[in-house]
Amino acid sequence: MLKEQFKLKVGLAEMLKGGVIMDVTNADQAKIAEDAGAVAVMALERIPADIRADGGVARMSNPKMIKDIQKAVTIPVMAKCRIGHFAEAQVLQTLGIDFIDESEVLTPADEDNHIWKHDFKIPFVCGCRNLGEALRRISEGAAMIRTKGEAGSGNIVEAVRHMRRVQSEIKHVATLDKHERVAFAKNIGASLELVQYVGEHGKLPVPNFAAGGVATPADASLMMQLGAETVFVGSGIFKSSDPEARAKAIVTATTHYDDPDVVCKASESLGEAMPGIEISSIPENEMLQNRGW
Amino acid sequence: MARIGVLALQGDFEKHSLMIEQLGHQAVAVKKKEHLSGCDRLIMPGGESTAILKLIDRLGMRDTLEKFIAGHPVMGTCAGLIMLARQADRLPVPPFAAIDILVQRNAYGRQIDSFIDRIDVDFDGCNKQMEAVFIRAPKIVALGPEVRVMARHKQDVVLARQKHIMVASFHPELTEDGALHDFFINKL
Question: Is B47 annotated to bind ligand?
């Protein structure tokens, strides 16, 4: 039963591949995202750039607002809960959310423990910076992994760092023999069984998506070429000057990520991208990616 | 060895390609209309039907796909079934109307209502059990006189064909069983 349930969870993640998942804060934005060709929307009260600017505690969104978004679109609706806040996750499951993001963008509720995601019928996605973190989340039941990047920064550099790190560690495991993988598993703090799987298959056992700082069609293309299977766009769309056009352009560029002509055409006449932040100007204690382990 | 195109704009097209290759055939990822030339058959995969249909129109692929579908065997799974149907609810653009079925999208509910079950499939008189994975699945709510039922789950038709078009509301590509792909490539 548990195995079947996990298959259904990963199955939905498979359906989202090659697409773009967009952050939206109301039904109108959700419609714009769906019309642009988004494969899913992430319902949240404030986009990461505003959470960053406003400060204070960021929590799960109001159920009423999530319901409005569910009514407005036919594509899957995702929502975020705080790291470790399994009661928020229970509420999201009751709402019939299609995918839960246990997200560092919200203020963590538990600094020691993440949610035991196997307890839920709804699939979870979790962020990671490296292979160890990815495999710990998968052990807890995550059916999809994404890079953390640095949400709300409009700066792709951290997502690139995290994707490259995960991919290079995956390649490294594949070069190790079974004996060496035991020590490797210990060093990265991951389950030996999952490390053996990664070594044998050369990939994670669940889909691997990109998130945190995607702002342009070329950013999406870059992440796909680095091995992402789908792209999350948070603040990048609705913080830009023409969200509708930018949403469409990022969708087209994600499908044809390996064709620079298409990415080029998609990038023309888009208006201003979101301003973006230099990562070194963010104080260490305000880096969202450092939340969770 | 057959050359099977798999519409690769979005969705789980890689899973279909893997199954085709495991059966000893060549899979061609169809992202542009020119990729269809030389293909013997086409699979329209699972994914988000709204997103895929939008991309088909935006990338100017509709006419080429329509012509191909008229003259070649095509299989659609889940979102692919919706795209091949005569009519489906809440779609932003019309589907291809290649098979005379009326479809209700997400008819079982949301992800929490997704499920796996066994079904009996009628392969031209030869019956076989298959594992069927239903993910936010659509339902065929009405079908025309020329549509042949190949499998049901409870009362619902979940696998059907009309001449060279075959549609499934579930995901054979997410299982280890290549029987439906084999039938599609060799018998349809």
Answer: yes
Q: Which fold, B3-186?
A: Rossmann fold (3.40.50)
**A100 DSSP β-pair partners:** A79, A124
Q: What is the pLDDT along chain A (293 residues), one digit of tens a residue?
A: 568 999 999 999 999 999 999 999 999 999 999 999 999 999 998 999 999 889 899 999 999 999 999 999 999 999 999 999 999 999 999 999 999 999 999 999 999 999 999 999 999 999 999 999 999 999 999 999 999 999 999 999 999 999 999 999 999 999 999 999 999 999 999 999 999 999 999 999 999 999 999 999 999 999 999 999 999 998 999 999 999 999 999 999 999 999 999 999 999 979 888 888 999 999 998 999 999 99
* Alpha-carbon gap, residue A91 to B112, rounded angstroms: 13
* Domain limits, chain B: 3-186
Q: Give yes or no for a contact between B116 and B133, defined as CB atoms under 8 angstroms apart.
A: yes
Q: Do the annotations mark residue B49 as ligand-binding?
A: yes
Question: For residue A211, which of A59, A101, A113 has the smallest C-alpha distance?
Answer: A101
Residues of chain B neighbouring A99 (CB-CB closer than 8 A): 111
- Candidates A6, A201, A255, A261: best to mutate against B (most CBs of B within 10 A) is A255
Phi, psi of A223 (to 5 degrees): -65, -40
Nearest to B11 by CA among A39, A81, A79: A39
Residue of B78, B146, B176, B181 marked active site: B78
Pairing assessment for the beta strands B3-7 and A208-209 based on DSSP bridges: unpaired
Is A80 among the residues known to form the active site? yes
The alpha-carbon gap from A285 to the nearest alpha carbon of chain B, in Å, equals 36
CB atoms B136 and A99 under 8 Å: no
CB burial readout A153-176, b (16+ within 10 A) else e: bbbbebbbbbbebbbebbeebeeb
Q: How far is CA B25 from CA A228, A251, B12, B40, B185, in A?
A: 27, 30, 18, 11, 9
State yes or no: is B126 an active-site residue: no
Report pLDDT digits (tens) over B49-84. Answer: 999 999 999 999 999 999 999 999 999 999 999 999
Beta strands in A60-175 (DSSP E): 77-82, 99-103, 124-128, 144-147
Choose among B98, B32, B37, B33: nearest CA to B64.
B33
Q: Which residues of A touch B (CB under 8 A)?
A: 4, 7-8, 11-12, 14-19, 34-40, 74-76, 93, 96-99, 121-123, 248, 251-252, 255-256
